[in-house]
Task: structure prediction
Amino acid sequence: RLIMNYPNIPDCQGLIAELIEYGRLMHEYGVQNTDIDAVTDEAYNNLKDSVQKLKSLPICKDLLKQEPNDLDSILSLRPEGPRKLWNSFNEEIYLEKLEGALLSRMAGCILGVAVEAWSIEDMENWAKYNGDAFPPTNYWRGTKYPGYIRYTKDDYKNYTLGGLKYVPVDDDITYTLLGLIVAEEYGIDFSTEDVGKAWVKYLPMACSAEDIALRSLKKGLDAKKVADIDNPYCQWIGADIRSDPWAYIAPAFPERAAHMAYNDAYLSHRRNGIYGEMFFSAVQSAAFAVDDPIEAIKIGLSEIPRECSLSKAVKWALDERNNIKNYKDARQAVDDKFKGMSGVHTINNACLTIFGISIGGDDVTKVLSETVAMGLDNDCTAATAGSIIGAIVGKKGIPSHWCKNFNNTINSYLNGIDEFKIDDVVNRFYTLAKRTYSVK
Result:
């Protein structure tokens, strides 16, 4: 079953904010700090106790059987699938499709960054204020956040039409590059422990589940266990956005791409969080060998458990897509289906990604445009949708306005690496992909 009816959780955040402000007010009214501390400490301890009680509640064992975390069990629950689509490595086809996937991924990410997680209404109003088309058919003309620096490197202006001089930093792009490094330094048969070592060496910061895993790794904790430690974000989209390098290393080899994705995802995620990365790695891998992105999506389903919540959601999206005409339809359908789900969850964002591809077809601009316009975690969804359709159509299918200002340069916040050259990244992925096909 696909669990959609979330519990009616009270507004704890609002109550906590009120508690803090009353603590301050009572101090201003002359109440002794020791008396205030006694009340707020009690509230804090009660909250901690409630969190522990929630974590201790018995989970559904039947659902767990359908959604295992270990690879062997996942493999046993997959439906039939092609597993590998090329008999041999085709250099010419690969390079054309790799460049298309990479360029379109970066374009989708940059387009979404400026309006990440905005409501549709806010995006529509911003487009009107800027004089931009909506859904956006080019990079935004302006930003609400001039002077604000992302990931210690790039002003928000660098993500706009007038400010774009290279590919500015973002975690969606950074993990693509870090995956490349992992496979180079530890081999294409890298382990979860190897990924952990690379994170400690290269990642200065992370978000949500990745942040929790990184902090635990830096304490010397076991890479195979850090995703289970104080991590309520283990089914969020963070692993999903790390899916593309494995497809670029294992093109037209969805089983191999999904296996690498598993080893990466297990560091920070569990269950549908893991499946999200496996699924989209397999989809992108298949996109190197098929002409229809929907066919690639269906192949991706063959690499995750057939009865898991993500699989059921993807099948729903595929069934529903004929009723989805535009970004508003897509967002409404997802909001209705997944009411109460976090806006950065793997499942609802996966469905938006599928709707964006379905609406846009082989039109890269329309895929990016409609996907960003849907909102939720729209830099992530547009990046993934861009990578899928970019692999389908190849570099020749990417309108030049999306990448003409990249100037062969990707800015980086990885430790010790300030920038990458796009042609070098392409060559390095090419070397790894050849290695994948040379292994018997």
Q: What stands out?
A: The chain is about 55% helix and 0% strand.
